Amino acid sequence: MLFAAATFVPEGWPFAVWCLSMRIAQGVGAALEETAMYAIIAELDAENITFYLGICEISTGLGYMIGPPLGGILFMAGGFSLPFVCVGALIAPAALIFYRSMPNDAHPVSKDQERVEPVATRSLLVNPQEPVAMRSLLANPHVIVIAVAAMLGNSDYAFLEPTLGEHALNLGLAKTPDAIGALFSVTIVAYTLSCPVIGLLAKRERMGPRAVIVIGLVFQLFGFLLVGPSPLLQQEQMGMPQMVLALLLFGVGAAMSMTPLMDDIMLSCRRHAEEASVAIAPLIMSSFALGQMIGPLIGASASGRMGFPWACTLMASLLLAHLAVIAIVSAVRPRKAMKNRAYVGVELASVTVSVVASPESGAARCLSHVA
């Protein structure tokens, strides 16, 4: 809402400082919100995290689709300030409702454990552990390769933002701003619609998060080769069907390479997954932000020096190289299958029975068992 006051700030450096400060505030706020979102979902239901993150990513896609036209309509209706005032007025009550509806922070309890143990003795059975530090996460090679995958997977759309319009204009595929906007919407719509489906496919009992991430990176790799088109394909011309196919691959590939990230890293943390969720969330969001930062830099600089087709080939080469790194890490240090997270409730079920039969002696045996 303070951004709306930029029109009242004097021109020159005061205006620049004001706008820069408001953008930094927006960035910090987005980082707080998105990082907390990942951590909250991991706390509430880690067993179905890919599905719920897929649902949340629908909101992200809808925001990208609705934001630009809504901002344009409000700008035409009331000038520069109106879009910021309206969106700020919507965020304030939404934040209040969210704050009041969220459960209190507590150590998560698995569903099986919740069914087995009595409420009165639950505090005796749960043994909270200290959160996993970020440096411990970064010491795990499986975590590192997936964090880099998150960066690369989130850089494709950012790569296209400063370059796709001019490229489509040069090819004669889009000659108006509306047509260029329609091309961008292909990727966003594909991303939005595929996220919940990807969330279901990436569940551990189905394809699993790692396989879905790898396939998503492959889709994005082919997207870069087709949208260039890469000189390696030796194509003289490119039509609209190939452009649309490439943009569809970007959208679906981004959904596949980003939605299962949290679950994959939690699998790499094995029995410390719950304690690591607080550190995993900022790691993922940092990877996303880094991808959004380097994508336009590579797209603009590489396209200016070597041309758009070779710049796309460079991005495809980076994805191929990282796919090879993931394969090497998976082969050298394979992850062992992790048992179901409900093991705590199963192990302590017999102790729970004794607590119900004899509270005093059962509580003592329960504490000794946990110790």
From TrEMBL:
Domain Major facilitator superfamily (MFS) profile as annotated: residue spans: 142-371
> One GO cellular component from the entry?
membrane
GO MF terms held by the record: transmembrane transporter activity
Subcellular location, principal: membrane
- Which keywords describe this protein according to UniProt? Membrane, Transmembrane, Transmembrane helix, Transport
Quick check: keyword Transport in the entry? Answer: yes
Which InterPro entries is this protein grouped with?
MFS, MFS_dom, MFS_trans_sf, MFS_Vesicular_Transporter
Transmembrane region positions? Answer: 73-99, 143-160, 180-202, 211-228, 240-258, 279-302, 308-332
Q: What's its membrane topology?
A: Multi-pass membrane protein
Where is the protein found, in the record's own terms? Membrane
Q: PANTHER family recorded for this chain?
A: GH10249P, MFS-TYPE TRANSPORTER SLC18B1
Quote the protein name from its UniProt record. Answer: Synaptic vesicular amine
Which organism was this protein described from? Chrysochromulina tobinii
